Amino acid sequence: MPVLTDRQRIELAVPAYLLYALTGAPDVFVPADPDLTAKAEADITELRSNLRTACLEPFADLTPAKSQALIRRLERIKRQTTTDWHERPALGLMLMLWCFLKDLTDREILILWAGSAMDRAMQKLLPMCEYGFQKREDDVAAQDQACVLFSRLQAEGLYR
Q: What is the pLDDT of residues 100-122, one digit of tens each?
């Protein structure tokens, strides 16, 4: 098995980390029917668990000190790329992250192995995001914002 560089490890962790951060915000997901609240909470808990696992997997074979150093770098990258997120609607951010991830997988920059924690998270997330893509203008805006995010990350030396 090839050894990953620090940059590759960060690139693997970024999508899951950004999604994990967003899904932890209050009221990001609101069930369409109040009777589904318990199921929605269980689904979000499972989603966040898978995202957390996916965030940490790239660092699992490192020493604790090296792992912590890369996680601090990951946190710095998140802070730099999410500075304007508090001003934007959660659904728009979620759709943008979905488009960002889709672009990475379409380009084969990121490969989601079937059954992996990230694959399970994306299988759970897709139905939660589907209705947001019903509006054409939301879809176009999310794709444009995903391109901006990708450019910001490239400015940080990632995904080159």
A: 999 999 999 998 889 999 999 99
- Say if residues 110 and 12 touch (Cβ distance below 8 Å): yes
Query: pLDDT tens digit string along 42-57?
Result: 888 999 999 999 999 9
| Angle (CA) 62 80 26, round 5° | 90
* 28 SS3 class: coil
Q: 39 φ, ψ to 5°? A: -65, -40
- The answer to whether the beta carbons of residues 50 and 121 sit under 8 Å apart is yes
Cα separation, 150 vs 46, in Å, equals: 27
Interatomic CA distance for residues 32 and 97, integer angstroms: 21
Instruction: Tally Cβ neighbours within 10 Å of residue 140.
Output: 11
Exposed, middle or buried by CB within 10 Å (0-12, 13-18, 19+), for 92?
middle
